[in-house]
């Protein structure tokens, strides 16, 4: 398990910002399941759902910014888990862009690839690897989307969510695997010891589109997310 506990460039849990958080939250005084639950809930709700400038932000930067999407929130989750001695790894995926309908304006979707890279965190607990994905969407935003579609039943894909049941997604951690975007996954890219090695092989955008996303488009998307998060229907 030692390779799943290493500090890396992206999983920089020795950074003073992350070490201060771990100390303030007293996570090291908890047993592994309690610590995992507390860290999971922190990343899910204290780090809001929103689109980061790039997937390759290190954990201390994601923590400082206070928001992220699947890949960047996953980096922070992994760093915090390793910081308290809980082994974890990443599984990469190809995912359909259809889950962004509603949260990303249509004209931006026409510029985006139809398939993008996605990841979730797998944690080793009590002799079993658990799949964790439900932390991506914060509960305030989720509640707003649930309210907006309160009469919807069955599979739901859109607004950053892809789940068999919008009103009862399996996103809360109770010692089992969690999911919130799994229903849009197309294929697995395999397991990686850390996000560093994953992003050395895979990236979502390049060239002009990457520049446009980083400096313009993501800000428009994040404004839409903020409007949705606090909307009342």
UniProtKB/TrEMBL annotation:
It comes from the Bacteria. InterPro entries: Papain-like_cys_pep_sf, Transglutaminase-like. Residues 31-132 form the Transglutaminase-like domain. This is Transglutaminase-like domain-containing protein. It comes from Pseudoalteromonas citrea.
